[in-house]
Amino acid sequence: MTEVRTRFAPSPTGFQHIGGFRTALYSWLLARHFGGKFILRVEDTDQERRVAGAIKYLLESFEWLGVDIDEGPSSAELDLVGEPYKGIGGDFGPYIQSQRLPLYKEAAEKLIATGFAYRCDCTPEMLEKERLEQMARKELPGYSGYCRTRNVSADTRHVVRFKMPHKPSITVIDAVKDRVSWDQVPMRDPVLLKSDGFPTYHLAVVVDDHHMRISHVLRSDEWLSSLPLHVLLFDAFGWEKPIFAHLPAVLGSDGKKLSKRHGATSLETFKSDGYLSQALLNYVVLVGWSPGEGDEQEIFKREDLIKKFSLDHVNKASAVFDYNKLIWMNGMYIRALSFEEFTAAAKPFLDQAGMQMAPERWKIIAPHVQERVRALNEIAPMIEFLCRDQIEREMNSMFHKEIDVSRAKQILKLADQKLSGLGDFSVAEIEGALRGLAAELNLKPGPMFGVLRVAVTGKKITPPLFESFSALGREATLQRIRETGVLLENVPAQGG
Ligand code: GLU
């Protein structure tokens, strides 16, 4: 096989969301699987829709995901579009389409010379008139081909149009969709080169995929309707076509295309919500791909994904992005971190919450937190009780069918006595005292510990109780138990 060269070709018209990144990940995995090259090409031919910062965001996102790019915009190219960043470069640049205009012009001239394209100088007013007349005749609107035979001079302001053949017959074997055929193309002499010298997407994509020696074009299946024109263009140029793979959409749980209304879709949000990049990458690859029949593996190291990835196992149907599955997987990845990695991962989240903890205390509590959180943003709320002098309490979580206000008061009072009397405020001593108390009161430990948990930590979900108390220390633990007793004085006796 000739070298596998794949590309991700986003338009910087906004910030790529997770579905777009999946396309990039598949392209990257395919290139890595075959020891080929993964290329980033910026398709900024629609200058009006350009969003400043979108390219830099892409590069940062790939870095965060650990996706390495072999060829892409160089630093000089990034400077030119006003998004300075460390560039990539490569032998087939520039990798930003607005910096490749002479190539598109040359290609368009070639098609004119060979009779596949022509210049058109129809004004917007003429085109609008034509469109209205077609609508009145209930015809599909589209260019009539008026300039096809007019030999418009290169010196007048013009566009270049493709001479769409009458009833072309086109068949493509798509690597995901299998055989796709068209016997007509619903585009009438589409524009290839605009009068300002910019190409349209169709010309640019074909020219670049050819010149950059792209072997496999992976993209979302919303581009499938453009494929017949691309095939005609490759044929008109006499260029070999790449392998095409049109990927089914990523859907939200309601079956609609994944979008902001389904929650986080931008990488930034996943990051700030406390997802680990390896977990996100692993999960996103599984949305629409599986290693194959009978292989139930779900947690993949990067090397495993590279080894196992193939287009054969990309689903033909759209796949649903399941946030529950993602957060489960994230929890699995969190648990697999070493103490040092977990500490480093937690730090920005604790900093952001303005929380600091003495290293000795963190060492005691961190393993228990790591066992319980599913995302890094759950850490700070879980250990807030250790870092703040004052806590908010979810008082209602204290009550239970066996535990009303007077019972809760009794538990607090007796726990205070037991814990005050302990020689050593160790996990084992605390546990012994409190289990003993539950037995004395003839209460199930769960609900009774629930009262103490809310009293001391404020929350229903925390690291294990005895460890939490021990980490907090006797003085603060007793003070909080007493404070809660006072709070309960103000709750009507039948509460709970
Ligand atoms: N620029 C197109 C996009 O924004 C690329 C489509 C393709 O990969 O050919 O998705």
Structural key phrases:
496 residues, mainly alpha, Rossmann fold, Arc Repressor Mutant, subunit A, three-stranded antiparallel beta sheet, 19 helices, 45% helix, binds glutamic acid
Word description of this protein:
It is a single chain. With 496 residues, this protein is mainly α. Among the domains are: 101-247, HUPs (Rossmann fold, 3-Layer(aba) Sandwich); 395-495, Arc Repressor Mutant, subunit A (Orthogonal Bundle), CATH 1.10.10. It has 19 helices and eleven strands. The chain has helices at residues 18-33, 54-65, 75-80, 101-113, 124-136, 201-211, 227-237, 267-272, 277-286, 302-308, 323-335, 339-352, 359-372, 379-387, 405-420, 427-441, 445-457, 465-472, 474-489; strands at residues 5-8, 37-40, 117-120, 159-162, 170-174, 178-182, 191-193, 216-220, 243-247, 250-251, 319-320. Helix 13 runs antiparallel to helix 18 (465-472) and helix 16 packs across helix 18. The chain is elongated. The model has no long low-confidence stretch (mean pLDDT 94). The structure holds glutamic acid.
